[in-house]
Structures are given as structure tokens and as C-alpha cells.
Amino acid sequence: MGGDLRSAPDGAAPVFMVRSLRDPDGANLDRVQMIKGWLDDDGETHERIYDIAVSGDRKIGNDGRVREPIGNTVDVDKATFTNTIGNTTLAAVWKDPDFDPDQHAFYYVRVLEIPTPRWTTFDAVFYNIKRPDNVPATIQDRAYTSPIWYTPGQ
């Protein structure tokens, strides 16, 4: 991913085909999101997150978001997790439902894994010390693509 989109044909909006695969040594995938940013007519910037593919039986709502969390298989005391939730791959074809051909915009994809132990949780178990209570015990790692820029009138 990454690049530039030129002016859209009349009545057309950008369509993206996205496919993600989990790291062979990592956690399963929770969801894939399209992040859209745009510049409105007053020069103000905006961003919106669209969930475009989700694991499990969860459904994406009319607002483009899934409301149910994926769940959590982390055993904090052992600093382990299982890949019994999530998917190894997620894919979607997404068309921008709010496309305005006269507005500058950008798009990038974000992929979220299922929760895994945070590094401080791993260290606490490995060194047999108290886990810090001022940070979360788990984390959801993410991967990001390079942006695609849309510039009207090119």
C-alpha cells in the first residue's frame, strides 16, 4: 500500500482490496481498520476509523464499527496467551461511503492482533518480580500501512 490517487471518475469513490495475515510466530488477528483523513472546505482536518474486517461472529454496525471486543486469552500470571480467538487471515473490499471528490484525503490500513501479554508482564514472570500496576498487563499490537493520498484535480 502507499501511493497517490488522481481525480476520481464522475460518481466513483475509491475502492480498496485488503488482505492481512498474522505473523507466523505471533498472535491471531482481531480486526482490520481503514483510517480515512480529510481536509474539509474550511481547512479543518478530520479522521474516521472504519472496521472493515473482524474476526469471530461479531458484526460491523451501520456506523462502520464493531462494538464487541474480541476477548482475551492472556494468562497474566504465566505471561502466556492462546490463539483460540481471532483469525489467521482477514480480508475485505471496502469502498469509501463518504467520498467527496473535491476534498483532499488520505487512507491507511491498521491491523490489530488479539491481546497478548505486555513486555512488562513477560519480564515480571521471567524475573519473578511484581508486575508494575501502573501499566496494563496486556496489549494489542498493531501494524500500519503506508498512506494512499487523494488529491482532487490532478
Radius of gyration: 19 Å
In CATH, the topology is named Immunoglobulin-like
Overall 3D form: elongated
**What would you call the structural class?**
mainly beta
Strand content range: 35-45%
* Total number of beta strands: 10
Relative helix content: under 10%
In the residues, how many domains can be counted? 1
Low-pLDDT ranges: none
Overall CATH architecture: Sandwich
Topology:
Layout: E1 3-5, E2 15-21, E3 29-39, E4 45-54, E5 89-95, E6 105-113, E7 116-117, H1 119-126, E8 138-139, E9 142-144, E10 148-150
Parallel strand pairs: 1-10
Antiparallel strand pairs: 2-5, 3-4, 3-6, 6-9, 6-10, 7-8
Describe this structure in words.
This protein has 154 residues and is mainly beta. It has a single domain (3-75, 85-114, 141-150), classed as Immunoglobulin-like, CATH 2.60.40. The chain has one helix at residues 119-126, and strands spanning 3-5, 15-21, 29-39, 45-54, 89-95, 105-113, 116-117, 138-139, 142-144, 148-150. Strands 1, 3, 4, 6, 9 and 10 form a 6-stranded mixed β-sheet that branches. Strands 2-5 form a two-stranded antiparallel sheet. The longest helix has 8 residues, at 119-126. The model has no long low-confidence stretch (mean pLDDT 95).
List the defining traits of the structure above.
5% helix, 6-stranded mixed beta sheet, single chain, Immunoglobulin-like, mainly beta, elongated, 154 residues
Summarize the structure.
The protein is mainly β. The chain is built from one helix and ten strands, in the order E-E-E-E-E-E-E-H-E-E-E.
